[in-house]
Amino acid sequence: MRGLTARFLDRKAISPAHGLTLDDGDRLALAAHACLPLLGIGESGLRGWSEVIVHPGAFRVEHGRHGAPHEMDELEVVEDGFEDREGESWQHGPMVLSWADLDAEIAEPEPGYQLVVHEMAHKLDALDGVMDGTPPLPRDWQRDWARDFGAAFEALNAELDALHEAGDDEAEPAIDPYAAEAPEEFFAVCSEYHFTDPERLRAAFPAVAAHLERFYGPPPALDRDDDPTPA
Ligand SMILES: [Zn+2]
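Above: query sequence and zinc ion SMILES. Below: predicted holo structure tokens.
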């Protein structure tokens, strides 16, 4: 983790925007959280992009000026053509983060949510040139991954549709419904669960959890004594 974090700080420009200032401790915290998903992958997971732009808070994206963004995290429609974001990753461009949201997550981690892990998952996804919910994998594994993630994505969407039809606004779906937005969001959100609430992911989508354990390595958040995975 120490080596990966040092490499991240060496290779990525961290650019605070709109008057934000980040001290060395802030930069270290950002880099360390970004490297969490790379513990099992290594520094090859840092390829393909070079800059993190950090906004003071949720930022506003205007559609149409820069083309369609791939990322619509925690979107909230403010007015026609604008959305507020906490994070965003363009396929080859910078990672964009809200410092207010990242700082709050570091201070008070919440199971199922890790903004930088989410954005790093998008960067890993894009390494094969397409942000579609499947990172670069050996052919056989990629086939199984696409099958299992596709089935889970459809199951979550079916669950949300059923809850909606039943008018049950109180019911909690298997995982954060944002995962149902698109296959790439499903992968990114499940990655957040892998690192912050792996038991819930296993209970909801065991095949997906198994792929992520193989891809990222065992979830560091799991108590080893509770881990049923054979060593
Ligand atoms: Zn996303």
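The chain has two domains: 2-110, 139-226.
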